[in-house]
Amino acid sequence: MAEYRDFEPTVRFRPALALSPDGTRLAYIDDAQGQFHVAVQSLDGGPPRHLTRDLGESAWHVAWHPDGRSLFYNADTDGNEHHQLYLVDADTGDTTALTHSPDVTFRPAFGAPFSPDGRLLAYAGADRTPTDQDVLVRDLPTGEVRRVYAGGGRVYAGHWSPDGTRLTVIDLRGATTDQVISVLSLNDGHLTRLTPAGDTAAYLPGPWLPDGSGVLVLTSAGSDATGLAVLDATTGALTWLDTPPWDVEDVALSGDGHILAWLVNADGASHLRLRDLTTGSDLPTPTLPDGAAQKLTLSTDGSTIIMLMATPTRPTNVLVVDRHTGTTRWLTDARPAADPATFVEPEAIYIPAPDGHTVPAFLYRPRTTEPVGVVVAVHGGPPVQERPDYSNDGLFQFLVSHGVAVLAPNIRGSLGYGLAWQTAVHRDWGGVDLDDLDAVVDHLKQQPWVDPDRIGLVGRSYGGFVVLSAVSRLPEHRWAAAVAWCGPANLLTFSRAQPPSWRTQVAILVGDPDTDAEFLLARSPTTHADRITAPLFIIQGANDMRVPREESDQIVQRLRDRGVEVRYDIYPDEGHVFGKRTNQTRARSDAAEFLIAHLTRPVS
Fold this sequence. Notes:
The protein is mainly beta.
């Protein structure tokens, strides 16, 4: 029978795309070399050329210099998330390190990091003090670095103004729904706040309008959904461009400033929208494949639209869209060895919750009339969304091929279903989210095609916490097996262990370890570990700075002291997000085999 390796993509991509200034070459980050590296490929096709090769480093973001001769990227080592910044020659691959502080994290700007003339590079770093992330600007010819904004907290560089004299700055005020956008003058250092004081809406900055009068922004101001607007660069006044019932999730502007493109996330599926800014008229919109898109990119004249795209039966690849003809073509061809014709399409279902809401979910069901086991898969985040794509690099399709169904719910805390749904778990981890999961499992047990004695769980990061919470606090479901990957087990120690610059955010999203210790312990899986009876598999990166190894150590020790079956795999050269292809393959393959072994045999 097929192995997981037959279902994984031949190449995986990080969410990073950059089109060269002349529009002929595309840069992206893939793991074709066994680790995530910067690759450049002609937009006309042909094989990619990889510019970075250090197998200890994993690249995350890439951008072209305006002269088209070099690229910027950031990378960490063995998953430690202490990102350093580099320039690499687009022809020779020669690399120049721009930062040299292995214990400090530097982060790229939200938009293109280079000023329009290519002289300055904007980024953020916590090099002054671990608790604060400042905005810095480097003069590339001289190497001089200026700290242009040091206001405290987690602050990022946004986008350069068209004339290169101003820079948007985004201040993450502890939560994904409380963000402040300001404009920083590089001439005199004056900072103008654009978002209203006291407004705790989401604000994500996009490109500037070509005349410098305003900034495109994705915002939930005054709405439960995220819309697209222009933020006046002087007054902060909002002019709405699109306020759909679903979230706008990405926006891009052509280099000439004429064509505006954005993506709308409708119940998980991506839909493209286009507008001619010179006339204000909406344009005919090419139809995208049914799936999830990201990293929207436009050519200078807006005639070519590029994005990363995945469908339930096709892994993430680079999709190129001709705006004039509406035709689409795949620039890359990452695919599994298994025949996609044997894959199943997910069914969107909606499960009633006890309080009258419904939990959206995607169901992957084997083609059989016999009752089957089911894996309930919980995504990370929590502000992430399960979508109709090639989820978990083919893990779902692999499980289905072995006669195991997969139900992937968007319990409360998930993106894509409004601000109230997303924020419902703030300081309530293990509360309403666990109630939703309980309702999901009750629903499954009522289905005639489900074997109620063969229900398992899998989740990573926050999803790992939900898995540990379910097996410890909902043992009445008699879980057949569970896999928790880098999941917090003790919310008190988890909160205390966060990097200094993250602690404010964690206090808002999870709880303050100084004032909420009793509550955090009550919601911790370690507190209820004596109730765990399910066979458990825990996966952990040794260098994880978000969920330190000690979290997994605690729950494993508690279970082993009681003689409960627990498998514990530690990856010494990985952090929270696994970067090495061999490790990703092994972890997913082992998790799948563990679940199949327990969910395809009778449970005594």
